[in-house]
Design brief:
The chain contains 18 helices and no strands.
Amino acid sequence: MNTIDASRTLRLALPALMLATPFSLPHESSVAPFINEIAEDFAVSTGTVGQFGTATSLGGMGAALALAPLIGQMSVKRVLAVVLAVLAVSSILSGLVTSFAALMVLRLIAGMASGVVLASALTAVGRLWTDPRSRTVRTGLVIGAMAGGPGLLGPALRIFGSQFDWHSVLILYGILAAASATFAALALPGLAGAPGTVRYGKLMAEAARGVVLPVVREALLLRLLLQALFGVVFGYLAAFFIHLYPGRTDLLPPMFFVGPLGFMLAAFAGGKVLGRIGVARGSAMMVALNAAGLFAFAWIEMSPFLTGALFFIYGATIGIAQTGITSLLYQHSGNRQGPVIFVNGALGPGGSMLGNAAGGAAILLTNGFLGWQILVTVAVSLTLVPAVLVGMRRYQ
């Protein structure tokens, strides 16, 4: 694989990657805040509109998995610029169409593009910075910037939408994605892959062998479990909060802000933290703290402000853990780094979709949130198993 020493990189490469990753979560940033308005316009239920999220996740997971075997031979700069451009066009068209079916197709396409954004950005980090410590710091910055989608861009678009409508929001989101695509095309170096004409089937087999490498398999399992847990928690955050504190709808916007804020701030600092205590040990510690915090979040009902603080801690611990997991994948995937990072990217939407479905089923089975609370408890316990396996290896 072609790698580029950090001294030869353009100084705008890191900002370009950080401005790209917020667009890896288009549903959470541009559609989810307007579910009620979209449902009203199309005369359908909010649950039906919620399936846009399912379409986005399916598209993202499928696209990342399909490209995983090929990314080692592709220019990451070109891939990132193209998928951001596709996201831009599909978002603008989403704001123009008047057919629910057409909008569903466009959200699937937007999901396919967005599912490749984060994976491409992290692959670029792996090619640009080869020193493990320097790479871990940059990984934290790029991953932390991702939270700017739902945490900063989403609320800003909500304010914009209150003055106009959701159609205008999607058009504006597309324009911003187009600006990010242009910046990436201008600021990033070529980041070319290794030349070759190997068959897709053989490349797929190579990618599969990368997934089961020591450390890589435990890190990917941990990534899947943490992402599924995110789907369980974030997907039902509003309903659970109102279940705990009836009538406190005024506190929902801050609740949706504090989690991404904790994630962003912790990921930004996470690279340096992990550099001091070790990536494997630090990641395992963060998963343990995350488990304790989420257990308290699910079962302690004292004050909405305590619940908010626990959700902030959840976001913070996940921010550092995700940085550590990605760093472990860089270190232990060898020449299969690109495919492994893309599989990691696919586990994001795939895990979220799994967790969202499991959370809904748990609520239905117990006709309330007791099943959801038990599911959260079981899920956080499961995350400790691969975390312990990773931590015991004592890799830096």
